[in-house]
Amino acid sequence: MKRIVCTSISKHRQFATSSINAANKNYKLVIVGSGTGGTATANKFARKLGRGAVAVIEPTDVHYYQPMFTLVGGGIKRFDQTSLNRSELLPNKVDWIKERVSKFDPDNNQVTTESGDTITYEYLITATGLQLNFNQIKGLEEALAEDPAVCSNYSPKTVTKTFPALQAFQEGNVIFTLPATPIKCAGAPQKIMYLADEYLRNAGKRDKANVVFNSSLGGIFGVKKYAEALLPIVKRKNLTCNFRTNLTEVNHKKREATFVNLDTGEESVYEYSFLHAVPPMSAVDAVKNSPLVDETGYVTVDKTTLQHTKYSNVFGIGDNCNLPSSKTAAAAAAQAGILSSNLSSVMNGSKPTAIYDGYTSCPLVTAHNKCVLAEFDFDGEPLETFPFNQAKERYSMFVMKAYMMPTMYWRMLLKGIWNGPKPVRKLLHMGMSR
What Pfam families does the database record attribute to this sequence (predicted)? Predict the structure, then answer.
């Protein structure tokens, strides 16, 4: 009979290990992954279901507030401000199983961990996020390891390289990329470009820099209102944008980056003096190889209820889902409230009725004191919280992004008591907004 070692969290937030008979333990709810969505739902359902009913399967100790990585790369925040131990975030009523899931078996209501242990459930939430596939760009892993001019804000292992690389820049091409896959926060690759441009201007080096944004997308941003606001900023800053252009190889010994035009197949080789590379991303391997996904490799959920389209006792949240919305913490916040309501209904024998409208937000930092706060729905229609034009660069929105949102994230969102700004939006618009 197999047994697992489970890490539980005491009420004093000290680590304690206990042996749990996984073969005979049937959790009411298993949550796989403890990022934004997983942690928020763990806190919600620990309160609903009580001690020992919920298990969180998560192998890592540290939770990162990834939206702050842009500000770390831009020299505005410190890296040590981006993380907390999961023991401070997960509720003491859950069993924290510190392993990685290797197999999903939804037909038998089971998951298997990498150590070979089997855990059964009545209900399952997939919240595994995305994995970073640096290895899919030839030479990129070696370049990140060996070239101080190559960096990426997308990993805690590489984000601390970005600002030193900017400081060391003397002259040449300053290149930023965006890959041809869904990614976390599709606005982040251009945010660091704006901050880099500002830093180089303040350092007296901007006239020696050719700042280039090579993006696989067809435009600067996917929502028309904000794209129209960003293009004049790009022009004002004298930034070169090449769209439908995808990074395929980095040769750090020659300091060359190879790109392919996604429409024509034509290759272009750029010399670089600074390269911020965003890796291709996907659902984690265990999810991609499971019966839970569609042909895209993402968990197949109803986009409005977040319930799996085949397995009614399975729900998904966040980046691992095939939702046609941007993959951001703001989206996960809105989804957490919908998921909680709908899963509770299903547990009570009712149908899910709460509707997710695709709300997400992307605070587009354009300088160390300015931000365009993009908020929109599934259809790319603006869904703004404040009763003013959020497409305009504002200091107030930067303050909210840099100083207010981190506190809300740690103390409210992850604790399961913040489901996005919808109530605030309706109040500020006197009930006239969705």
Answer: Pyr_redox_2
